[in-house]
Design a protein that fits this description.
This is G-protein coupled receptors family 1 profile domain-containing protein. By secondary structure, the protein is mostly helical. The protein contains 2 helices and 2 strands. The longest helix is centred in the first third of the chain and has 21 residues.
């Protein structure tokens, strides 16, 4: 999930830079705003992929195969 989120973040940054090159530099955001935007997108992607509410907790599994029991 983290890899997919970071891939989508990379695509978003690529599209942003492609669109940004079409705009005039004087009208576009400064470097501070651009870096803040990149950090915001990466933080959102990392936060969305973080396992919350113990959804990914370890579970026990018992396998019964003929006469053997595996735990």
């Amino acid at each position: 999930v983290l890899v997919a989120s970071l891939t989508l973040t990379g695509v978003a940054i690529d599209r942003y830079t492609a669109f940004k090159s079409k705009c005039s530099v004087t009208r576009g955001p400064g470097w501070i705003a651009t870096i803040a935007y990149v950090i915001l997108v990466w933080s959102t992607a990392a936060g969305a992929s973080y396992p919350v509410l113990d959804l990914y907790g370890p579970q026990s599994l018992i396998i019964i195969n003929n006469h053997e029991i595996y735990t």
